[in-house]
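Can anyone check this?
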Amino acid sequence: MKRGKRYRKISELVDKQKYYELEEAVDLVKKTASAKFDETVELATQLGVDLRHADQAVRGAVSLPHGTGKAQLRVLAFAQGEKATEAENAGADYVGGEELAKKITDGWLDFDAVVATPDMMRVVAPLGRILGPRGMMPSPRAGTVTNEIGAMIKEIKAGRLEWSSSTRIDRVGAVLHVPVGKVSFTKDQLKENILTMIDAIIKAKPAAAKGKYLKSASISCTMGPGIKLDTQDLVNLLEG
């Protein structure tokens, strides 16, 4: 791919052969941001899993300490009675039952996340073919099917990230891509977010995965080049 002059110039700041410690990498990713908008910082990690096997699927969720910098997600809650009131008080954008399910079946998708109480899954289950491919199907494992619906809505609004093999992972090479902030964040905010995300990824290792799990990691801003991270440095920082 032929790159523009601007990209080639900022690429010169990055040593393609070097694995950077987190401190230096975060400094560098801020320097490589040259767009007129607040670029997103993305973390990419190659994982030692074989996604052809269902028992090596990778999924998890995490609330970043400083959020992602994105506008608050629009949350739809399937709940009734007291739980519907709890969802509304927690900031859910849409709360209901069968009427919302029908709207979704008819093509309405003006929301970013879906949560449900267990008793409402009879209504939600038929929506799997619509919500599943979009990574929005509630599930007990992800914590989005819960009686603590108010707490979950607040987590999502605060910047909770979910990932799974079907939504955020490039199946060729098992590379997980997740946003970890904006270049306008302070260096410490980006470092804390990245370490929180790395820790969550490590804890999400499938029991069936063999060999080295965190094979490589890099960060980049929206319009910038990838900056390789020293994975041992990340592990050392997490171990403190």
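Reply from J.R.: I decoded it. The chain has a mean pLDDT of 91.
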